Amino acid sequence: MMPPSAVFEHWSAEFDQLHAERKAFVLAMHPQIIGRPSRITLLDRLIQHMRRHEDARFYRCDRLALELKDTL
Q1: How many angstroms separate the CA atoms of 44 and 40, rounded?
Q2: What would the pLDDT profile of 42-70 be if each residue is shown by its tens digit?
Q3: What is the dihedral of CA 54, 56, 60, 9, to 10 degrees?
Q4: From CA 14, how far away is CA 69, in angstroms rounded?
Q5: 12: number of Cβ within 10 Å
Q6: N or C: which end of the chain has fewer CB within 10 A?
């Protein structure tokens, strides 16, 4: 397990790079890991970080698939 500070650094760096490339950021959240108290706090912090980007959009995977199905 990585320390919480390293987890946030990793998640936010991945989001920032994919956002710069105009690509989708998909965060895998395995219940046995994301359910830890420190990870839930980090997830909230990550969402706040992402919301600072006015053009960032949040989708469920099924909704994103519907949005993209005709573009592939």
Answers
A1: 6
A2: 999 999 999 999 999 998 888 888 888 88
A3: -120
A4: 24
A5: 15
A6: C
